[in-house]
UniProtKB/TrEMBL annotation:
Official protein name in the record: Hydroxyproline O-arabinosyltransferase-like domain-containing protein
GO molecular function list: glycosyltransferase activity
Species this protein is from: Populus alba
Domain Hydroxyproline O-arabinosyltransferase-like as annotated: residue spans: 62-355
InterPro entries in alphabetical order: HPAT-like, HPAT/SRGT1-like
PANTHER family, alphabetized: HYDROXYPROLINE O-ARABINOSYLTRANSFERASE RDN1, PEPTIDYL SERINE ALPHA-GALACTOSYLTRANSFERASE
Annotated Pfam families: HPAT (PF23452)
Length: 360
């Protein structure tokens, strides 16, 4: 793999900065009212469709699928994710089946022999208009059409996911399971949502506050939803008002709307995932999503958007992997952050050729 040009790295860094700033602003505004989200998980099921208890499970195993690019930034995250998948797959309580990295770069890369991979095409040049995650629904459409998938269910995952505990199948029959994101608020964007989810389809409350990941869903349902998800994503991106309002979470709204258009409601599981540094404990949650930067001073205090004396941020490693044996956080940092760094360190210490294969 050739090294990325300095200009490309600068553009990527700027893009990640603005995405992180927008999400960080949302989190800081929300943190005072979100103690229920970050503390305890005594009531993990926040929404259960009325008749889901009647629906059986014909095949509990689910196929783990994550979409990815061939950029070094994506590759090192995929390697860590796959390491922990292999460790958790055979543990008691796991319903994990096989694993596929759906690579939407149109060509193979040097991880093909390490990680089970299915290569699909990216969107035609320029169609994503710099919003690379628009390739995700198109990747799923292609994979579902062309691949042989033995499991009846699919987990849609992302490279920056780490399995912290063995993951069971949280879906119930035709009701998928998803994670409720506090910043996905269809009811607060009714005017925009109605452009894509007309009144005759039902109330806006039928649009779940989720993205496509993490979601465990029946393969047959995803085959129906994925083309709609792709088309809604492109339509949203083409609408200036929608694009401005939804920004970097546009594709997440598109999946939520597409699901509602097909009459699919999700079981909302707060224990599906945690997001350091805002979620403080791992306990029995299943996936660590390390999308946010973790910045602390040496007293163990979070510095809220300012680069800390100690930090872990995946965006620090755009052109290559983090080094082995990262320094652990100072005393006082939440258990979720400590666990994240320890899990990254374990993976990098045990993945063969960690430094050489990800050098660019």
């Amino acid at each position: 793999m050739g090294r990325a040009s300095p200009l490309l790295l600068v553009l990527l860094a700027l893009g990640f900065f603005f995405a992180t700033y927008n999400l960080l602003t949302l989190v800081i505004q929300y943190k005072d009212s979100s103690t229920g989200l970050r503390s305890g998980i005594s009531d993990p099921v926040t929404g259960m469709p009325a008749n889901s208890w009647k629906l059986g499970k014909s095949n509990l195993k689910f196929h783990v699928a994550l979409t990815a690019t061939d950029a070094p930034y994506s590759q090192w995250q995929c390697r860590i994710m796959y390491y922990w998948y292999k460790k958790m797959k055979s543990m008691p309580g796991s319903d994990m089946g096989k694993f596929t990295r759906v690579l939407h770069s149109g060509k193979g890369d040097h991880l093909m022999d390490e990680i089970p991979t299915f290569v699909v095409d990216p969107l035609p040049e320029g169609l994503d208009r710099g919003y690379i995650v628009l390739n995700r629904p198109w990747a799923f459409v292609q994979w579902l059409e062309k691949a042989t998938i033995e499991e009846e269910y699919i987990l849609m995952a992302e490279p920056d996911h780490i399995f912290a505990n063995p993951l069971p199948n949280l879906a119930h029959g035709d009701n998928p399971a998803g994670f409720p994101f506090f910043y996905i608020k269809p009811t607060e964007h009714q005017k925009i949502v109605r452009k894509f989810y007309p009144e005759e389809k039902g109330p806006v409350t039928d649009v779940d506050p989720i993205g496509n990941s993490p979601v465990i869903i029946k393969k047959s349902l995803l085959e129906e939803i994925a083309p709609t998800w792709m088309n809604v994503s492109l339509r949203m991106k083409d609408d200036p008002e929608t694009d401005k309002a939804f920004g970097w979470v546009l594709e997440m709204y598109a999946y939520a709307v597409a699901s509602a258009l097909h009459g699919v409601r999700h079981i909302l599981r707060k224990d599906f995932m945690l997001q350091p540094p805002w979620d403080l404990e791992v306990v029995k949650r299943f996936i660590i999503h390390y999308t946010y930067g973790c910045d602390y001073n040496m007293k163990g205090e979070l510095t809220y958007g300012k680069i800390g004396e100690w930090r872990f941020d995946k965006r620090s490693y755009l052109s290559g992997p983090p080094p082995k044996n990262l320094t652990l956080p100072p005393p006082g940092v939440p258990e979720s952050v400590v666990r994240l760094v320890k899990m990254v360190n374990e993976a990098t210490a045990n993945i063969p050729g960690w430094d050489s294969l990800n050098s660019g």
